Amino acid sequence: MPDIIVCFKWVIDEAYIRTGSSGALDFRSVNYKLSDYDRNAIEAAVRLKEECGGTVTAVTVGTPGATKGLKDALSRGPDKACFVNDQSFDNLEPSQTAAILTDVIKGRLEYDLIICGEGSSDLYAQQVGPRLAEALGIPCVSFVQKLSIDGNRIIAERKVEEGINIMAAQLPALVTVVPDINNPRIPGVKDTLMASKKEVISVTADDLPATYEPALQTVSMTAASMERNCITFPADQAGIQAFVEALAKEGVLR
Fold it and tell me: Domain range spanning residue 179?
């Protein structure tokens, strides 16, 4: 029966972001949510547990205020959670997140399989899963849309340009999954109540062998805008040339 670790992130819910009159984004009234891609990862882990037995541990790195994310994640089926938290873990670069996860998993958690979302809903760097696998020295299969366990190996299916690619990898291994892999369950009232009774392992920065200072800094952020000038071009060679010249004049083409 496999021990499965699933990683998740508590992120800003973009539905609450407002745009000011100057175009600047207003984050004063934002709420937070479980990263959309990580919901699929948690669902994939729980379904494997339901098929093969074993345990699922949900792991996240964040600030102490991200405790609501633990309850949300646990209500979706994991047996326990590991909360790696510190006030300084607010603007970590993906390589730092992967390094922290490596320190925690190596020293505290048993695993046969690690599942991550293909990216996060905020940065979407797609780096944490592969970097974590490299640091742990285990195989990594990315962008998986179908996953099963066959004895001491995983069978992973993913779409590629040439068709469907089916791969096998020996456990322990890590996979990143795409949203096509499943439809995440919606926790019920009972699931939410049970989540508060599940074990949560708390790890702070003082428990880690290295120090991680925030590496990302947001210089500015404005909302995307679209302006139409309603210029039309004839569908002939002269029109195409005029269209290209217009784009170059606007600075779209260089």
Answer: 3-207
- The answer to whether residues 49 and 108 belong to one domain is yes
Burial class of residue 45 (count of CB atoms within 10 Å of its CB; 0-12, 13-18, 19+): buried
User: What is the CATH classification number for the domain harbouring 96?
Assistant: 3.40.50.620
Strand positions, DSSP E, the chain:
3-7, 10-12, 18-19, 25-26, 32-34, 55-62, 80-85, 113-117, 140-144, 146-150, 153-160, 163-170, 173-177, 199-204
Least confident of 26-40, 55-69, 79-93: 26-40
Q: What is the total count of domains within the chain?
A: 2
Q: Which of 74-83, 185-194, 213-222 is least confident?
A: 213-222
Question: Is 217 part of a structural domain of the chain?
Answer: no
CA distances from 21 to 8, 36, 39, 226, 232 (A): 34, 29, 34, 15, 30
Could you tell me the pTM of the whole model?
0.85
Residue 19: band (very low, low, confident or very high) from pLDDT cuts 50, 70, 90 = confident
